[in-house]
Structures are given as C-alpha cells and as structure tokens.
Amino acid sequence: MIVAKSQGHGSYRAQSIRSWLHAFLISKKLPLHRYGQYHSSILNDEDFSDAIKLHLQSVSQKEGHFKAQDLVDFIASPEMQQRLDEAGIHKRSISVWTARRWLKRLDWRFGPRKNGMYVDGHEQEDVVAYHAAFVKRWLEEYEPRMVAYDNDGNPVKNPEGYVLEGKYRGQPFRIILVTHDESTFYANDRRKVGWLHKSATGKPQAKGEGESIMVSDFLTMEWGRLSHEDQEARLLFRAGKNRDGWFSSDDLLIQVDRAIDIFEAKTNGFAVALFLFDNAPSHQKRAADALSARKMVKNPKQGWTHHPGGPRMRNGQLPSGDTQEFYYLDDHSTMPGWFKGMEQILRERGLWRDGLLAQCPGFKCEAGRTDCCCRRILFLQPDFANQKSALEELVESRGRICDFYPKYHCELNFIEMYWGAAKFRYRITAKTSNIDEMEANVKACLDDFLLLMNLYRYANRAARFISAYHGGLTGADLNWVNKPYRGHRILPASMIAEVKASIEQFSAKK
Q: What whole-number distance in Å separates Cα of residue 490 and Cα of residue 352?
C-alpha cells in the first residue's frame, strides 16, 4: 500500500503489485504489460461474417427486408452456436444492440432504400424475346461498325470494314449511335437535404411540382448533344393546357426530321446514323394510312377509314407478291370506292372459309390458333405483321437506321444517366422566379461541360449491360457487376462465368 500511495495510486494498485510479486515468486519471470493485446472480434473471422451476410441476404430476398432481431435469432441457431464454441467464445448470445453494432461493422446502414435498376416486366415472354433479338442485332450488326472509346474519350477500337449486304447495302460503313429520350424538369424539384442549425424552423413549401419543362434531345458519344453550328436538335417544350399543348408523335416526327438534317450536315456522308428510341407507345404509333386489322369491318362499307376522317388505308400485298387494293375502284358498278371488308380481302388472298367470324368474342382468341377469325388471320399476314411505325418509316426513308430499346430496359440507354446528372445539378441551383429563368437554368445544367465529358462513362456502362446480357446474366444480377469493371466496355468471359458460379452457389444454400 505504501508503494502504491507513493506513486499516487490507491488500493487497487496495491492489490496488483501484490499479485505481480506472487507471480514472480512462482515463475521467476517479470509480468508483461498487455497494452495493444486486445481480443479480436469474432467478425474478423471471414467464414463467420460471410455466414451472417449470406443469411441476411437470404432473409432480405425472401421478405424484402430484415431486422436486427433476425441476426440475434441466427446467432442462436445450432450452426452458429457450434461456430462460437469452436472459436472458444463462452458468451454465445447477443442482444439487439450488439446486433446493430455488428450490422454497422459489416457495412449495413439503416435508412431508406436506394433506387436501383428496375426489373419489373423483364421476364415477360415477349420482352425476353425482343430483348434477345435486340442484343443479337447490337453485337452482330451495329457494334462492329462503331468506334469504341474508353472512359476518357480515347478511341480503343476502330471498326474493320467489310462489304455490306442486304438491307445495309449502299450505306457508309461506319455507324454513329444517336440515342433519344425525353425528360421533364419541374420548378419545385429542389434539394431537400442540407445542413440546418438546430434552432432552424420550418418554412412554407410550394404545393405540387410547379411549372414544368419537357426536354426532348439526342446524344452521341462523338459530339455530345446533336447540334451543328446554329442548328439544334434539342427541343424544350412547355407541356400543358394554355401552354404549348401536349407533345405528340407528330411533334417527334418533326424533331427527328430536323435531327437527320443536322446529322447529314455534320457528317457529310462519312457515316450513317443509328437512331435508337425507347419502346414507348407514342414511338410505335403508325402512320394514319398504315395497315391495321384492328378496326376493320367484315363487310363492304362506304367511306370506311381506320381513323374517322383520315386517309384511306394503303395497299397490302397478296401472297403472290402482287399489290392488293383494299378499296373497290371508283367506277365499280355498285360500290364505287367502298372499303372491301375483311371477307373480300381474305377471299382475294385465298384464305377465306365459310363461317368465319369478324373476330372471336373480345378478340380473346384461343391460345395457338392462327385461323380462328378474320381479324386474327389478317393480324398474322406478313404485310400486316411487318407494318412499321411512322417513326421507323421516316428514319429509313431518309437512309438511316432506326431501332428501339427493349421495354423495361432503360439501363441500355445512356441518356438516362445524363438526365440524372443534369437533374442533380438543377436541384442544387438557386430557385428561379419565372418560367423563362427556369428554362435558362435547365439549359445551363444540360450544357454543363463536365457533364458532357461523362458521356463516355455512361455509354460504356450501358455497353457493359449489353455484354452481360449476352453472357447470360439477368437484370437482377447486374447492379454490382458494373462496379469492379467500370473501366471496361465489354465484360470478360471469365468474370461472367465467376458471377454465374457465385449465383448458383448462393441459390444452392438458400
């Protein structure tokens, strides 16, 4: 005690000195201090922590979420109790508070979910079929004719020319992708988080989203936004009643026609444009005179057109390849200029049989039937089935290539990432007081130089998705694939095989 007090300590130090003396007398060795010699956490055991991660991922996939209590219950399971026993840990249960600390240590954070890639609708049969066909077209017909760039804009692959045949005969060899999309900016879409003093009080907020400006634009990797000298492909549209009205498919056709003019002026014929659009219904709208059996009547009818007051339907094509007119000649003895009706159209094609109805009730034909009613038969005729949209007809009539992204696969269109980055910049700008100021603000955000420099990264990210889909991965597996290979445009085959093996292993353990 005297020694302890001389060092400024109390009875606890005196007891320690006594125990050290006894230890020395027994072992003849001086005791060593244990500074820095702390017990390591069981979470440092990779097998132990991986078992926790795998279990929580399984619970999350099944339930949509997990709780800290799920970790408590898992630690109490026989499997984990055995692991703790083998590690020499005597306390084999944890509290909810400990579970929360462990979750934080394992890089989980409690909070609202981040929005990721949407996968709803990916597995629909028609979507899967179109998606596979699109990926095949991209890899076999489009990409071999494109220049590939790295994330800094340096060319890494130049296309090797070959003779173009079939529908591409006569085109320039090089393809330049021109991708299109539309997005809307709202006046009240402002930043909602920031540093606030604890004494700050709430301020009144504007109701609703406020005035809007819709932007319809085209992007390329080569030039950024599609423009040439004083010509601009971008369209800003103030949609709504008592404003510019509503953006229609006819407005898009006018804009696309102008975009093709700009592309031709910019390239002088050294490349052909591949115009890619999303698969929105407005983009699939057909011309007013396009072939369609949807509203056709069965019997002859005077003045019938697909759209009331619209033009006559264009001619079809007989199985022999000859032209088929759908209206009687104007000098017909009893029905001059009348629409022939589906029955007569089928008779001329040699497809009519007695007793055919105009359509099955509700047009809900029996699965697999191809000849159950007039409408179904015409729907499946080559000239009707291959009828193109007005947008596709316009682009191809001007010697360009037109295609559409698969439905529900916006991750393939790199302009979506451009919209997101532009809106991030827009939200942190000062609030504007009128629509003209707002429009100038939107333009400034869209024209940001650093934003346009990132287009190479956005395009390569979209290309990696296509590469992964071609390798057999699905949308739900791809969110994290882009992270370790963000510098690549094409995913290595070894990496795709590794991902597949990991997924199979995880599925087997569930």
A: 52
